Input
Amino acid sequence: MFRKIILFFILISFVEMTMSTSSHAFFFKKHKTGSKQVAKNVEKIEQKVGAKKIVLAEIYASWCPGCKNIQPTLDLLVKDFSQIELVQLDVSTPSKAEASQKLAKDLKIIDFYNVNKSKTATVGIIVPTSGEVVSVLHNENSEEVYKPFIQDAQAKEKELQLPPS
Output
């Protein structure tokens, strides 16, 4: 009987201890979006995009294996093409998805975001002046596949910047 009572108290203590510690699961933990940080990031990206860089908009999630698969390729493209800006629209958690939706709206790529927000590892190549989506690629990790679409977007951006003759 004494062992049962001790076992019962140990069990109660364990349950109480696990209930009092905060969970790391996003659906139990209240997140702060950090609106000041989001505003700074939006401003920084808007300045770069305002410089007429081609936008690679990636629908990203930290848990997505496809996103991890294409990340090295996207990093190489940004390194190889100085006129590219990579914008990761993070949909890992509801709070990050909300911040990404605001970012997409501010960058005027909200239509791309709304169509693709449930398709992680999707990359859109977008002309910044017109907002035209030149191409949408899904889980593509070949740098060579991206290059013609980037060059097409650059040509379209140049046409838009030329004064009318």
User: Anything to note?
Assistant: Residues 35-161 form a domain with the Glutaredoxin fold (CATH 3.40.30.10). The chain has one domain: 35-161. Confidence is low (pLDDT under 50) at residues 20-40. The radius of gyration is 22 Å.
